[in-house]
Design brief:
Length: about 270
């Protein structure tokens, strides 16, 4: 089975159409490796046949999206973000919004490590401020990865890294059975899940106090980065903050966002 340049180009167009992800021809080996098991499962003998299937059969599109998205993530990825969230964001928010519920959106949540990191720190914050309430809405374009996030069961690298970076939180918040560490209902009850493409408006519409939009803009070209940021803006309360990944900078894009500190943005006053 060979992925020739013509079919590769057509697949790249389909990836962009369904996810916004800008792939280059250099990803051909990656695409081959990811699509091949699915083609075998469908008894398709060529990439052309698979291309036809995706183009003609809407039911195949969610599988295609699952295969072409990259879902790498970790608990407490990028420590500065968590220092900011626990040390500055939560106390400031609470001082300004006493008695209200904090609404957070983990957009591009992948397998959920980010949203449960948020939940653990919210629980910790609640220890000193028992009236504090929070809700996390977690979305991703991939149904399959979102299912993993909702299951909240982890093993391997994710768990090993968490055990060494935050042993106390791991011990306190996870239920371990053999090699599997499970998130308790105590954390899950604060989370809702929904499939969502960041290029489209979030439905139902909602205004969040804080949006984690990390390590996903890197997959888009500038045009789609701007679209995602425009959409996210409609989901932000006037005082909200947007958190990006460490290798993502949007200052050159002329958006409605104003740099606050590394990785943290707020809405321009005119846009808020
Ligand atoms: C590398 S993971 C980032 C996970 C997490 N935010 C973090 O920083 O660790 C990127 C995620 O973006 C999702 N994604 C890609 N394109 C998307 C789109 N158009 N809309 C929503 N999610 C998308 C992928 O499915 C993947 O789970």
């Amino acid at each position: 089975m060979e992925l020739n340049p013509t079919i590769l180009a057509k697949l790249i167009v389909l990836v962009r159409k369904h996810t916004g992800i800008a792939m280059t021809e250099r990803k051909s080996v990656l695409l081959e490796r990811r699509l091949r098991p699915r083609m075998q499962a469908l008894s398709l003998s060529s990439y052309q046949d698979y291309l036809d299937r995706v183009e003609r059969d809407g039911a195949e599109i969610p599988h295609f999206i699952d295969l072409v998205t990259t879902n790498d993530t970790l608990f407490f990825r990028t420590p500065q973000v968590w220092d900011y969230f626990a040390g500055r964001y939560l106390p400031d928010w609470w001082a300004a919004h006493h008695g209200k519920t904090l609404h957070i959106w983990s957009a591009a949540a992948a397998s959920g490590e980010e949203l449960y990191s948020i939940a653990m720190l919210c629980e910790q914050f609640k220890l000193g401020t028992p009236a504090f309430r929070y809700h996390i809405h977690a979305t991703d374009i991939s149904q399959q990865i979102l299912g993993q996030a909702a299951a909240g069961q982890y093993e391997g690298r994710s768990v090993e890294r968490l055990q060494s970076s935050h042993p106390d939180l791991f011990k306190k918040y996870f239920i371990v059975t053999g090699k599997v560490a499970r998130v308790p209902d105590e954390l899950k009850k604060h989370v809702s899940f929904g499939q969502h493409n960041l290029l489209q408006p979030l439905r139902p519409a909602q205004r969040f106090d804080l949006i984690f939009l990390r390590n996903v803009l890197i997959y888009f070209d500038i045009e789609h980065q701007k679209t995602v940021l425009q959409q996210a803006r409609h989901s932000m309360a006037p005082h909200a903050r947007l958190i990006l990944g460490e290798s993502e900078t949007i200052s050159r894009l002329e958006t409605a966002y104003q740099f606050e500190q590394t990785m943290i943005y707020k809405l321009d006053e005119a846009a808020a």
